[in-house]
Structures are given as C-alpha cells and as structure tokens.
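ok so i was messing around last nite and threw this chain in just to see what happens. nothing serious, just curious
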Amino acid sequence: RHTADVLLAEFEKVINYYRIEKKLVRLITDNAANNIKAFDNILLPGFETYFENDGRNNDDESLQDNDDDSNDHFELVSLDDDIVQCLSENLELLRLPCFAHTLQLVVKD
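result:
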C-alpha cells in the first residue's frame, strides 16, 4: 500500500540505513495526496530552529542603519506579514513538487 504513513516509514528507513539524513537537500515527488501528506511538513535537518519563535523582536524598526547613504539605490517595499511568513515557512521544506510532472498536468488541461 502507498499510504502516507507507509511512504514516510520507508523513506526514513532508507535514509537511516544509508546514513544520509543530514545530506538531504530536497525530496521531489509528484503531487499525489499521499506524497503531500507524507512529506509536506518535513523540515530540512538543521533548520528546525528557524521555525521556532524565540521571542526576540525582529521587525524592521529594531534594525539600525549606520550608513545613511547605503540605501540610495534601493526602493524599500513593504510586504504583508502573511506573505513574509508564508515565504519563510516554505523556503526550508524538504518536499518539492516535480516541476516536469506539474507542467505536464497543466499542458494536458
């Protein structure tokens, strides 16, 4: 059976057997529901702390710019907090959809 639990258990068994758990960068799967359920919440090893709230204030107001001329060539753009959170949460997820498979599905429609 190809349930999410079975896929995840087999995945963990294989990466542990070959001792590659700290070498993985991404896992590419198709968009089948069982793959999404099995792998979508797995974070890259070593990046878990980026998703923990440490209580520090990290907003723009807490940052100080010592060089007033350093931003002359840049335009500051304010992003919605939800967009920033979504981007930062999804950057370090292990599973990515297969781009070729996704493109094939789009072309067929």
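not much to say yet. The longest helix spans residues 4-17.
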